[in-house]
Amino acid sequence: MNLYEYQAKELFRKYSIPVPAGKHIESPSNLQWDKFPVVVKAQVLVGGRGKAGGIKFANDHKELLDKTKEILSMTIKGLKVNSVYLEEKLDISKEYYVSITLDRSKRRPIIMATTSGGVEIEDVPDEKIVKYWIDPVIGYSNFIGKDISFKLKLPDNEAKQFQAILAGMASLYNDYDAELVEINPLVVTKDGSIIAGDAKIVIDSDSLFRHKDIPENAAERTELEEIAYKRGYSLVELDGNIGVIANGAGLTMATLDGLTLKGGKPRNFLDLGGSDDVEKVVGAFEILKIAKPKGILINIFGGVTHCDTVAKGIIEAKKRVGIDVPIVVRLSGVNEDEGRKILSDNGIHSYGDMMDAINEIVKEVNKL
Question: Could you confirm whether 88 is annotated as catalytic?
Fold first, then answer.
């Protein structure tokens, strides 16, 4: 789960990482700010807000009100701006970059730092980036901060501040099960202070039950995704026309790939999981009906999930939900023969091979 900038900076304060004075504003009616100039930042969970006009400066109260109203009326990359973050404008001398994230290929956290901040890290030449992999058994130590600041050739007064900030980031990363903690830019002001000019934190969504102090950001989800989430389903909305239900994230992804390969356009990712419950299957169809696909593909590889149970759920869904688009089913695994007979008796043909089912649903949808 991505955090908004104001949420990330609240956590930064908790870990003694210096941030500018700031205030989160949801409506111009409670717009109170006394220190100018001020930066007005759109709070959206996408990158590129600056280029989209979502960051503006104000020199007095009238400008502040105008800029705030302007940003709150914006939609950035499809997301409505519902709040802004006011922050004192920094007197910038230099901009650095530092982050901690997970290097999945090496199965350990990696620290990346560069004195070329203020731009996307992908745009910085690799030779200008200092990288340090943290041993997951040993963990972070102050030596790491000293080593990185030495390799960055930071002046002594900056090095000490940088090391304290990095130590705070490492503690935050571990304590909050983060996937990413990033500061870009890490600002060096003209008086030599180092401050987090921006903040980006991504937390493992599966760990949120351990972090009750962090509210879930529903704005990350579309209306359909929010409906599915509240009903206990893992769903990602896409822009195609073929609804997809499968069991297991890996199988669901493979189904989407297979559809795309054969010219189909998936409407969604919906992982049924290992459920062995007719009502769970019916509920999945209820969600897909809201999505209004032109066809539905069900791909079940029965291990924990019994194929006959899914078949019963499909038949029940047709009766109760009122599905009036083509349905193609792939059933393979535990009780597949029983499952196929149930479907066949109710006029639904099923396949044992995934690609056969994909070819059929693409053909059916193309007829429409």
Answer: no
CA distance 42 to 52: 10
Distance linking the first and last C-alpha atoms of the chain: 38
d(CA 81, CA 84): 8
In this structure, how many other beta carbons lie within 10 angstroms of the beta carbon of residue 309? 22
Q: Which backbone phi and psi does 67 adopt, to 5 degrees? A: -65, -40
Give kind and range of the element (H or E) at residue 57: strand 55-58
Q: What is the tens place of the pLDDT at every residue in 184-233?
A: 999 999 999 999 999 999 999 889 889 989 887 755 677 888 899 889 89
pTM for the structure as a whole: 0.69
Catalytic residue selected from 15, 85, 96, 97? 97
Question: Which residues of the chain carry a pLDDT beneath 70?
Answer: 218-220, 275-276
Q: Do 349 and 310 contact (CB within 8 A), yes or no? A: no
CA atoms within 13 A of residue 153's CA, in its CB half-sphere: 4
3-state secondary structure at position 223: helix
Q: Examine the residue annotation and report whether 176 is marked as an active-site residue of this protein.
A: no
Burial label for 310, CB within 10 Å (0-12, 13-18, 19+), is buried
Tokens in use for 26?
A: 């949801």
Question: Where do the DSSP E strands lie in 146-259?
Answer: 178-189, 194-196, 200-203, 234-237, 242-246
Domains and CATH numbers, the chain: 21-88 (3.30.1490.20), 92-210 (3.30.470.20), 221-367 (3.40.50.261)
The residues with which 195 forms a beta bridge, in sequence order, are 187
Q: Annotated catalytic residue: which of 182, 237, 336, 364?
A: 182
SS (H, E, C) 270-289: EECCCCCCHHHHHHHHHHHH
Measured CA to CA, the distance from residue 142 to residue 164 in angstroms comes to 9
Which tokens in the block code for residue 133? 């992999």
| pLDDT the model gives residue 220 | 64
DSSP letter at 305?
A: S
